[in-house]
């Protein structure tokens, strides 16, 4: 989803709770990575890998001049032979420390092991834990901030991720620059509307 479609979606959602909720969550995400400066870890579940969100956050980090938003994608089935940006395994969560931010994206409550155990240890080590998922359950209980996307909600998890990543980048801009930068992005990305989808990040 590009900036044009995000803008259209925001128009459709105007007056609903989703715009405020996604912007608040994006503000917490941005505030955590910028103020703590320890880096952003992004992890999903064995069945759901948020590689698309990782790619969007990398773009937002570049467009907004906020390199802290660029995440390290932590993967359940990472292999040493994978490209470097796809080769970080769950062991990275064990090394999480104070100042780092861990964003967990899960369409449903993860199994207690191994993911939740590692998230719990990361929190105990001082990392800030954020969660995008169904709400409730162990993950929400251990997260410092949660954006609930329950099954059957008006928006699906993928759409919410687009809104969050876009808001994180726009809100990172100094006051007065967001609207102009957003117009620049609209201009550039309008050309891509008829292009084929991007290849796997």
TrEMBL record:
Protein name in the entry: Uncharacterized protein
Species of origin: Streptomyces spiralis
């Amino acid at each position: 989803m590009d900036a044009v479609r995000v803008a259209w979606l925001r128009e459709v959602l105007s007056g609903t709770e989703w715009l405020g909720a996604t912007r608040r969550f994006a503000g917490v995400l941005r505030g955590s990575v910028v103020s703590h400066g320890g880096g952003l870890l992004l992890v999903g579940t064995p069945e759901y890998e948020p590689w698309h969100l990782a790619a969007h956050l990398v773009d937002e980090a570049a467009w907004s001049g906020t390199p802290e938003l660029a995440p390290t994608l932590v993967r359940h089935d990472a292999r040493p032979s994978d490209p470097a940006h796809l080769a970080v395994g769950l062991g990275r969560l064990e090394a999480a420390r104070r100042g780092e931010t861990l964003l967990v994206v899960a369409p449903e409550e993860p199994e207690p092991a191994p993911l939740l155990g590692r998230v719990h240890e990361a929190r105990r080590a001082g990392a800030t834990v954020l969660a995008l998922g169904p709400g409730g359950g162990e993950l929400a209980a251990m997260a410092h901030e949660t954006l609930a996307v329950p099954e059957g909600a008006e928006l699906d998890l993928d759409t919410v991720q687009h809104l969050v990543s876009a808001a994180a980048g726009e809100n990172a801009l100094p006051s007065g620059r967001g609207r102009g930068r957003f117009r620049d992005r609209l201009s550039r990305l309008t050309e891509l509307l008829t292009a084929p989808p991007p290849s796997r990040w």
